[in-house]
Write a structure and sequence with these properties.
CATH architecture: 2-Layer Sandwich
Family: Belongs to the CTAG/PCC1 family.
Oligomer: single chain
InterPro entries: CTAG/Pcc1 (IPR015419)
Shape: elongated
CATH topology: TATA-Binding Protein
Number of strands: 5
Structural class: alpha+beta
Subcellular location: Cytoplasm; Nucleus
Radius of gyration: 14 Å
Organism: Perca fluviatilis
Order of helices and strands: EEEHEEH
Pfam family, one: Pcc1
Largest sheet: 5 strands, antiparallel
Helix content: 25-40%
C-alpha cells in the first residue's frame, strides 16, 4: 500500500491525502471498490472522497477542510478496507458472474 503525505493544496487551501492499495487481481480491486464506495461521508461540505480502480489497484483520494475530519475519514476507511480484505481472504477470490 502506498500513501502520500497529507498536504495542503495551495490553490484550494484544503488538505489532501491519497492511498493506493494493490490487490492480487482487478476483480478483487473492483469488489473492494464496490464494497467501500457506498459509504458516503456523513458530513457534507467538509470532506470529499474519490475511489477508482486502475488494473488491480484501488486508489482513494481525500480532500478536507480540517485535519481532524480527514483523520477520522481515513481511519474509518482503513478499518473498512481491512474488513473487506480479511473477508476476501477468508472466503477466497471472488467468482466471476
Amino acid at each position: 500500500m502506498a500513501a502520500t503525505d497529507g498536504e495542503r493544496n495551495p490553490e484550494t487551501g484544503r488538505l489532501e491525502f491519497s492511498v493506493e492499495v494493490p490487490f492480487p487481481s482487478a476483480r478483487e480491486a473492483t469488489v473492494a471498490l464496490r464494497s467501500l464506495a457506498p459509504d458516503a461521508e456523513p458530513r457534507k461540505g467538509g470532506i470529499s472522497k474519490q475511489l477508482a480502480v486502475t488494473g488491480s489497484t484501488l486508489s482513494v483520494r481525500w480532500s478536507a477542510e480540517e485535519a481532524r475530519i480527514l483523520r477520522v475519514s481515513v481511519s474509518s476507511f482503513l478499518d473498512h478496507l481491512a474488513l473487506v480484505a480479511e473477508t476476501m481472504e477468508m472466503f477466497g477470490p471472488p467468482v466471476s458472474q
